Amino acid sequence: MIDQTRSNSVIIERDFRAPPETIWKLWTQPEHFAAWYGPEGSTVPVCTIDLRVGGTRLLCMHVITPRGPMTMWFTGVYVEIVENRRLVYTESMSDEHGNVLTAEQAGMPAGHPTSTEVQVDLRPSAAGTRMILTHLGIPTGSPGAIGWTMALDRLSALIDANTAQ
User: Fold this and answer.
1) Tens digit of pLDDT per residue, the chain (165 long)?
2) Which of 15, 77, 138, 152 is deepest in the core (most CB within 10 A)?
3) What is the pTM of this model?
């Protein structure tokens, strides 16, 4: 479910059939994050995570767009970490060295923010885990919002495939 009450942010609530500890690992361990992040058909060949407040993250995503294949790099800094409960980090488009790009340098429309913030809150629920994802600075209906929905669909499918075994 996407909450459309805040126009400059995306808020998505999802239930997953796995405990918070599992969802936490899927968000914080590079090999697991790379397995589900991005829209359908995308791949993440590079994913580094230095999971500590002030630590950085860097990832490369290959994605097929209506305009053809595209490679995007993202970097960020971890702002808040409460194991198995809350993860907050900044996110910016970057080059392969983690140098932040302006909207224009990244090929984004004028006015697109250089840095945004991602908040992931996890709570135990009857299903397993209730996750609330808030991405501040990304408007509802934007490609970023659609990308999150598709990525979380992939996360759900990954969890379901692993629990079926």
Assistant:
1) 434 445 689 999 999 999 999 999 999 999 999 999 998 889 999 999 999 999 999 999 998 878 889 899 999 999 999 999 999 999 999 999 999 998 788 877 777 788 999 999 999 999 999 999 999 988 777 777 888 999 999 999 999 988 765
2) 138
3) 0.90
Rounded CA separation 41/60 (Å): 14
Torsion over CA: 20, 26, 27, 29 (sign):
positive
- Extended beta strands in 28-161, E state: 43-49, 56-65, 68-82, 86-94, 116-124, 129-136
Parse the chain into domains and list their residue ranges: 2-163
If we measure between CA atoms, which residue out of 94, 38, 113 comes closest to residue 69?
38
136: nearest Cα among 95, 94, 76, 82: 76
Q: Give bridge partners of residue 114 from the DSSP assignment.
A: none
Reduce the secondary structure of 45-64 to three states and give it as a string: EEEEECCCCCCEEEEEEEEE
Query: What CATH code would you report for 2-163?
Result: 3.30.530.20
